[in-house]
Design brief:
6-stranded mixed β-sheet, 20% strand, 13 strands, Purple Acid Phosphatase, chain A, domain 2
Length: 305
């Protein structure tokens, strides 16, 4: 077939493709380097996609019946002693079935990526304070499961290890489980941003949610808009509740819990934070739940939200 309008023939196109793949004969292989060489295959062989490196991501189910206490954003050693005492005192009256530490229990100020006051950089002291706090919790709640879910401040540890000691970052002795004596106190560690399921209620720290352009006026409503699901979060240091009803009048509820840290840190003197915690009552069917969201006043008194 003759060329027309500078077009090439079908045979010429075929030859060029074979040359690109390096299958245009021994003579041409010596003259041209294949741009896209094809792997050798057997006759009749059918290709399959490569194996996936994706790992399964599943919630952690806290399989208990009864009251589960939820504490978050303690930021040890920058915690409020009054708020911590009030929360623990109230939870001890609830006959808890389990205790969930919902992230940012530790602050890890010294290994933050943000600008730091050099006079406050005492990472060894921070670790000792967090260990002491976990030992205190086990003393106050000796017979129940304690689950510790990673928050963004705990994630500072992993980021710091990857940046400064990548070669040994996968050594179990370099994990927070080892450094904070979780095994000693019987504390279960939940990382990888996994939700903790209390019945049908997913609990997130809050940093896992997609980021918006601005902080929502109502944190619980912001969590609803980002998940379109029932959820309880911490992270924002503000107590709030929100409920939505769909066209079938099925109601979706969302909650955010207050913090137990200092309300006037040097990086955010002016804010709208409040002290608080929550209790989730899981019914005997292990699905139905009730949320009791609490605020802590300046004098340490506990009020329902």
């Amino acid at each position: 077939m003759a060329e027309a309008n500078n077009a090439i023939t079908l045979e010429q196109a075929r030859s060029r493709i074979r040359r690109e793949y390096g299958v245009n004969g021994t003579h041409h292989r010596k003259r041209y380097k294949a741009v896209a060489p094809r792997a050798k295959r057997n006759a009749g062989e059918i290709l399959a996609p490569p194996p996936s490196l994706a790992e399964p991501w599943t919630p952690h189910r806290l399989d208990v019946v009864g009251a589960v206490g939820i504490l978050s954003d303690v930021h040890v050693p920058y915690h409020s002693e009054i708020a911590v005492a009030a929360a623990i005192g109230h939870l001890k009256e609830q006959n808890l079935a389990a205790l969930l530490l919902n992230g940012d229990i530790a602050d890890f100020y010294a290994i933050s990526r943000y600008m730091k006051d050099p006079t406050q950089r005492d990472f060894k002291g921070e670790l000792e304070a967090v260990r002491a706090f976990l030992a205190y919790l086990r003393q106050e709640f000796p017979d129940i499961p304690i689950v510790y879910k990673e928050g963004n401040h705990e994630n500072r540890w992993q980021q710091w290890i990857w940046a400064h000691a990548a070669e040994i970052s996968d050594d179990p002795r370099m994990s927070l489980v080892a450094w904070l004596d979780f095994d000693k106190h019987g504390i279960e560690w939940i990382d990888n941003q996994r939700p903790v399921m209390l019945g049908k209620l997913p609990v997130l720290h809050g940093h896992e949610l997609p980021k918006g352009m601005a902080a929502p006026v109502n944190v619980a409503r912001g969590a609803f808009l980002r998940t379109l699901s029932t959820v309880l979060v911490g992270h924002s240091h503000r107590t709030s509740n929100h409920a939505e009803s769909d066209m079938w009048h099925h109601e979706t509820g969302c909650w955010s819990t207050g913090c137990l840290c200092d309300l006037r840190p040097d990086y955010c003197r002016v804010n709208r934070w409040n002290h608080g915690f929550a209790v989730v009552e899981i019914q005997s069917d292990r699905q139905t739940f009730d949320v009791f969201n609490f605020r802590i006043m300046h004098d340490g008194s506990v009020r329902s939200a």
